[in-house]
Amino acid sequence: MKEQGIMSGETAGDKGRKWLKINLQVPLRAVESVSDLLAVISGAGVEVRPHEGATSEVSAFFAVEPQDGGDADTATAAILALVRDEVGGMLALYDLPAPELTHELLDDQDWATSWQQFFKPFEIVPGLVIKPSWESYRPAPDQQVLEMDPGMAFGTGQHASTRMALALVTDTCRTYRPASVLDVGTGTGILALGAALFGADRILAIDNDPEAVRVATATVRANRLRERIRVSAEDLAAVQGPFALICANIVHNVLVDMAPDFRRLLAPGGRIVLAGLLRGEQERNIGRIYSALGLRPVHSLQHEEWAALLLLDTSR
Predict the structure, then answer these.
(1) pTM of the model
(2) Could you tell me the residue ranges of all domains in the chain?
(3) Mind spelling out the 3-state secondary structure of 122-189?
(4) Could you give the C-alpha distances from 86 to 81, 165, 281, in angstroms and in order?
(5) What 3 state SS string does 13-59 have?
(6) pLDDT the model gives residue 1
(7) Which of 150, 196, 197, 228 could form a disulfide with 154 if both were Cys (CB 3.0 to 4.6 A apart)?
(8) Each residue of 187-209: pLDDT tens digit?
(9) In a 3-state reduction of DSSP, which class is residue 307?
(10) Does position 120 have pLDDT exceeding 80, yes or no?
(11) Is 207 helix (H, G, I), strand (E, B) or coil?
(12) 13 φ/ψ sector (left φ>0, alpha ψ -120 to 50, else beta)
């Protein structure tokens, strides 16, 4: 797994600022979810180091800017408490204990010139290249280009489950050309953006995290796709369908809970892409639960411990 971006250009290099680096060891099956969560709540970025044994070291960077006469120690304590609560809640979904945190306070540096050199355009799935805003890239005739800067953008696209979900979404849009798409738990908006670039006409991207909604909205705007993608904090239960394609890269238990809503919102003969699943029992259990609703798995991708599924409505 490649290291992710340190921070976004809009937060880089502010004078007088310090940075809090928080380190934690995360079990492999939860690395993607935890790193994506930390990227969103930090507003900056994360590093994921190659795993040793059953865990990977994840590091998150937070700007420390004392407010109203406070000091750096008070601001640091507040950030550490937030990370403990948020990561603890995320790991509870995997029946895992909260990890021990270590941290260090770093002096500000001119990040804008020191870290941008590490981020170059790369082909995340066949035919789709992600590039940072400061790089130029001339695509091949069969390539689409998505502009996403490090931090939250690169905190998702390099993970196995995101790559597999994106591969299934873009392949489906190439061949099926869905008129309407619902992206649930959109995060950075990468699945919605990929769907738009490969032929989907109308896309609703929802997330219950206001920061994710802000970031996805900004990325949609940067890629000039506002006419085709609407980003919203709308609750899934309030969404009105039907949608020809529904995609979600979340976690197993949440995908189980969402199955009835996905059934309700899917158009006859529609497709569903599900990712964030562990290979083996989680993958099989999702297949059983969705098959009982008339949504049959027709294709799967696996990489290391992760799996992603494409399901087809066979009930109508």
Answers:
(1) 0.71
(2) 9-114, 122-313
(3) EEEECCEEEECCCCCCCCCCCCEEEECCCCCCCCCCCCHHHHHHHHHHHHHHHHHCCCEEEEECCCCC
(4) 9, 24, 26
(5) CCCCCEEEEEEEEEEHHHHHHHHHHHHHHHCCEEEECCCECCEEEEE
(6) 29
(7) 150
(8) 889 999 999 999 998 999 999 98
(9) strand
(10) no
(11) coil
(12) left
Compute φ and ψ for 174, nearest 5 degrees: -65, -45
Contact 241, 182 (CB under 8 A): yes
DSSP 208-248: S-HHHHHHHHHHHHHTT-TTTEEEE---GGG----EEEEEE
Tens-digit pLDDT profile for residues 255-270:
999 999 999 999 999 9
Is the dihedral angle over the CA atoms 64, 70, 75, 77 positive or is it negative? positive
Q: What is the CATH number of domain 122-313?
A: 3.40.50.150
* Bridge partners of residue 277, in order along the sequence: 307
Contact criterion met (CB below 8 Å) for 275 and 305: no
* Tokens of residue 309, six digits: 């599924």
Contact call for residues 60 and 3 (beta carbons, < 8 A): no
